[in-house]
């Protein structure tokens, strides 16, 4: 059976940039466009040339090799011809392959926001599409607030869509701009548009996530006949975000309900890079990946309950809807005080630690984990610390270094102008290969000073830890009061793209931090030698 083509349109660089706290540089946009292009996205929308210096510079040359390079803008202004509209002119003159123009399709917005007549708005849509086509570029129209407009005045909303289509627009995109429509409404209205004479092969869907249903609404539109989906990487966007292409694409490619009927520009081979794409994008945003993201999250293929782990050992399909490797992710059987022997055996096997089921050290490890988690440790979220604990239990950790002690001082002083200044200083005493090393460092805070001092002089291992980077630091107070027990989780990484997490627990936040820091460095040295992280 011939499968129909679904076209993927990414608006991360334009609509995604509406996310609070997100502001892409030109270099960021170039890097992200390249990632999307390589992945197999059909259309990469880069922004609004002429609206700001960044977007203007970005559109000074074509930034994609395979994907259509799309510029966003508006239809001509009311009362101004397309030839004399400076905004439209800057779009036509850009290096874009296609132009996506936003048009009002709700008569309420036409009269209130635009301050013009419904007839003039329709004329603006028609004139703008014709101007784009005359320039040799592909034309698209985003019908803003289409679903709300259709519910208020279906005849006028349909007139906007039909005007764009009849003028020659390759795509007319139906936008749920306020994000409040429900999947059943989306499906019914898309069907109505197709029944009115606009083919689904020319219709797209642009859904916002204000009710948490942007992905569902996008798929409902596809079920009803639309053949283009607009969305963003990791679902970023204004307010609650846009439809998440990182969730939509694997659903289309892997789930039988869709893959037997449709095909996309993303092959199964490319899909294996989905997790890497998602995390590379988060890295550009300088934010930690969301662990519970479908398909690509660290928890997407993780299990904690012992009975689940036992079934996974027999057949992963018992608790996995797709193979984790199909999206570049991996299976994780967590160890915790809720885990049974199967969890531990699976976790040890994945790390290359061969253990017999009747090995008494296994019972000792399980008991230690349960005792330490009762004290506040969380090994399910600290893979490296668990592996170090396991290897210590089975006696396989070399004595690379030993910490003889540390001291941290925080001093509030005044500078030459009499302004208060807080300075943190740390001293760490290490023994490496029989040699005592004393390191001193100042930092932005006590933990930063401790980290700098610990890694300032690491003897023969200094070059090995040169690319070690702390990427995330989390503190959790486990009980109330000033004498509370504190848990610190530290995520680390290196230039090889490897990441790992360590944990420390103490009544003293500095001591807890030092435990996690020490484990991170030890794990890094072992990983360099192939003594840790095997299969993890």
TrEMBL record:
- Which GO terms label this protein's molecular function in UniProt? (R)-citramalate synthase activity; 2-isopropylmalate synthase activity
Q: In which pathway does it act?
A: Amino-acid biosynthesis; L-isoleucine biosynthesis; 2-oxobutanoate from pyruvate: step 1/3
Documented EC number(s): 2.3.3.21
Give a yes or no for keyword Membrane in this entry.
no
Catalytic activity from the UniProt record: pyruvate + acetyl-CoA + H2O = (3R)-citramalate + CoA + H(+)
What keywords are assigned to this protein?
Acyltransferase, Amino-acid biosynthesis, Branched-chain amino acid biosynthesis, Isoleucine biosynthesis, Transferase
Name the domain of life this protein comes from: Bacteria
Acetylation as UniProt keyword: no
Might you name a Gene Ontology BP term for this protein?
isoleucine biosynthetic process
Identify the Pfam families for this entry.
HCS_D2, HMGL-like, LeuA_dimer
What SMART domains does the annotation carry? LeuA_dimer (SM00917)
Enzyme class, UniProt record, top EC level: transferase
Homology family: Belongs to the alpha-IPM synthase/homocitrate synthase family.
PANTHER family listed in its UniProt record: (R)-CITRAMALATE SYNTHASE (PTHR43538:SF1), ALPHA-IPM SYNTHASE/HOMOCITRATE SYNTHASE (PTHR43538)
**Protein name per the record:** Citramalate synthase
């Amino acid at each position: 059976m011939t499968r129909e083509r679904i076209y993927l349109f990414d608006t991360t660089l334009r609509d995604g940039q509406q996310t609070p706290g997100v502001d892409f540089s030109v270099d960021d946009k170039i890097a992200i466009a390249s990632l999307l292009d390589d992945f197999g996205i059909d259309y990469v929308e880069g922004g609004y040339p002429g609206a700001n210096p960044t977007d203007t510079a970005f559109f000074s040359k074509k930034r994609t090799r395979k994907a259509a390079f799309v510029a966003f803008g508006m239809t001509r202004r009311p009362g101004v011809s397309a030839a004399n509209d400076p905004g439209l002119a800057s779009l036509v003159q850009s290096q874009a392959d296609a132009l996506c123009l936003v048009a009002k399709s709700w008569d309420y917005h036409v009269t209130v926001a635009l301050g013009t007549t419904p007839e003039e708005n329709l004329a603006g849509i028609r004139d703008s599409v014709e101007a784009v086509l005359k320039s040799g570029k592909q034309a698209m129209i985003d019908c803003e607030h289409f679903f709300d407009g259709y519910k208020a005045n279906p005849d006028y909303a349909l007139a906007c869509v039909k005007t764009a289509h009849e003028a020659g627009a390759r795509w007319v995109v139906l936008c749920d701009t306020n994000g409040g429509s429900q999947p059943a409404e989306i499906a019914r209205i898309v069907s109505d548009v197709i029944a009115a004479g606009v083919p689904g092969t020319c219709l797209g869907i642009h859904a916002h996530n204000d009710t948490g249903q942007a992905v569902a609404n996008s798929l409902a539109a596809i079920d009803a006949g639309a053949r283009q989906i607009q969305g963003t990487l990791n679902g970023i966007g204004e307010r609650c975000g846009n439809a998440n292409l990182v969730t939509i694409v694997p659903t289309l490619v892997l789930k039988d309900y869709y893959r037997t009927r449709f095909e996309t520009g993303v092959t199964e081979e490319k899909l294996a890079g989905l997790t890497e794409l998602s995390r590379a994008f988060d890295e550009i945003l300088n934010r930690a990946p969301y662990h519970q993201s479908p398909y690509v999250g660290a928890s997407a293929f993780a299990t904690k309950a012992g009975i689940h782990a036992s079934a996974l050992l027999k057949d992963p399909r018992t608790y996995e809807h797709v193979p984790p490797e199909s999206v570049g992710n991996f299976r994780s059987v967590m160890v915790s005080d809720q885990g049974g022997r199967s969890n531990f055996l699976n976790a040890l096997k994945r790390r290359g630690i061969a253990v017999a089921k009747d090995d008494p050290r296994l019972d000792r490890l399980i008991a230690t984990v349960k005792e330490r988690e009762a004290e506040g440790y969380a090994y399910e979220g600290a893979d490296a610390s668990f592996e170090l604990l396991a290897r210590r239990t089975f006696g396989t950790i070399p004595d690379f270094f030993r910490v003889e002690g540390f001291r941290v001082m925080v001093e509030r002083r005044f500078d030459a102008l009499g302004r208060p200044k807080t300075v943190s200083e740390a001293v760490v005493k290490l023994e490496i290969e029989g040699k005592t090393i004393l390191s001193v460092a100042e930092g932005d805070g006590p933990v930063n000073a401790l980290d700098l001092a610990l890694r300032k002089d690491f003897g023969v291992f200094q070059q090995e830890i040169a690319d070690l980077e702390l990427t995330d630091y989390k503190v959790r107070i486990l009980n109330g009061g000033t004498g509370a027990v504190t848990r610190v989780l530290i995520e680390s990484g290196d230039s090889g793209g490897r990441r790992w997490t360590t944990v420390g627990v103490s009544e003293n936040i500095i001591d807890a931090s030092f435990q996690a820091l020490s484990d991170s460095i030890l794990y890094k040295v072992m990983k360099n030698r192939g003594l840790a992280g095997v299969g993890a």
